[in-house]
Amino acid sequence: MKRDMTLTLLLTPVVFAPVTARIGAEFGDLPQRSYDVAGILLTVTLWLPLMLRRRRPGICLALVASAFAAHELLGYPQTLASWGLYFALYSFGSHEMRADGGRLGLAAAAATGLYVLFALGLYDRGSPQRTADFVLIYLVLNGCWGIGRAVRARRTVEAEHRRLGTEAARAEERSRIARELHDVVTHHVTAMVVQADAAQYLLAGAPDRVAVSLEAISDSGRHALTDLQHLLGVLKASGGMPVEGGATNDGTAGDRTLGPGRLSDLVEQTRAAGQPVELTESGERRPMATAVELAAYRVVQETLTNALKHAPGHCTKVQVRYGQAEIEVEVTTEGAPARAALPRSRPLGRGGGHGLLGLRERVGVFGGELVSGSRPDGGFRVHARIPSKEPA
């Protein structure tokens, strides 16, 4: 790397400085000889290959170890450059990516054999060091490599944690997209199916009212296309990873929030499908996170969709209460649906598990809760409580 090259070159003059002449790793205690050209070249080879310690750690170690062995066997005086062996061993353990189990075993056996030959060479040249000394030095060298190996193992674990975290985030985004698609498509398509069935019914009894149903179908289709375009815009803007809460580039969450008129538009769309809906808002609106507003909007949207599916023609009441620290949404449908209110329609399809369960998960993200169930009179009730701020 560039940093290694710069640092190595800057420290090269220090290697030959007289003040660092005795600060080095000395093996063998052989009689010292005067420096000559060969000694200078070996000293340089002990240090300069450290420029390759990250990019080519194996080559770096081979060059430094060979120069160190020759330097010691020839009896040249020690310098700071001899510490390059320790750095090369550490770098090999830390950065060598091709050292798998089999190759590592062969490399360790070869290195041990070469070290034994090196020790025998020193002994043959008159080294006073004992076998225990060479064993201790061998353990120190292995320790340098082991520290590098431990650092590499830690980096590998951290990288795996990051990878798993990224995969989990992507899985969560895919789940969130599925919920968004369910919320967007199911509501509008359900309304369109109900309106189409009503139009067929009206053809026989009140053909002059068919145009109203067809206009409602057209409006629902346009709203569905608009919502899908917003969702696709999120996907394009984030390279396939939507931002939390479904915000678009301008942060409006596709304009599907509890802002002025948003709920009213949603209620009007549902009324146009033939479903009586009453909307009541109370409390003072306060600034809240966009994702929280979107979650509350989806609660209302999903419950109105369920009312269209399971209680067509019967009054549905929507109550939204703005508190100091939370927002409450309550949707109730009264009693069993009036059979004469709308013609019996064909089945609207099975849910894919993204309805109330998805809403409960969405609300739970913010530390809120959602409760749903049947009422004694045969209707149903959905109650959600959502903190106004996203959790830190």
TrEMBL record:
GO terms for cellular component: membrane. It comes from the Bacteria. Its EC number is 2.7.13.3. The chain crosses the membrane at residues 37-52, 104-123, 135-151. InterPro entries: DUF7134, HATPase_C_sf, HATPase_dom, Sensor_HK_TwoCompSys, Sig_transdc_His_kin_sub3_dim/P. Pfam families: DUF7134, HATPase_c, HisKA_3. It is an enzyme of class 2 (transferase). Signal peptide: none annotated. GO terms for molecular function: ATP binding; phosphorelay sensor kinase activity; protein dimerization activity. Residues 173-237 form the Signal transduction histidine kinase subgroup 3 dimerisation and phosphoacceptor domain. Residues 17-155 form the DUF7134 domain. CDD domains: HATPase_UhpB-NarQ-NarX-like. Keywords: ATP-binding, Kinase, Membrane, Nucleotide-binding, Phosphoprotein, Transferase, Transmembrane, Transmembrane helix, Two-component regulatory system. Residues 293-389 form the Histidine kinase/HSP90-like ATPase domain. It catalyses: ATP + protein L-histidine = ADP + protein N-phospho-L-histidine. This is histidine kinase. It comes from Streptomyces fagopyri.
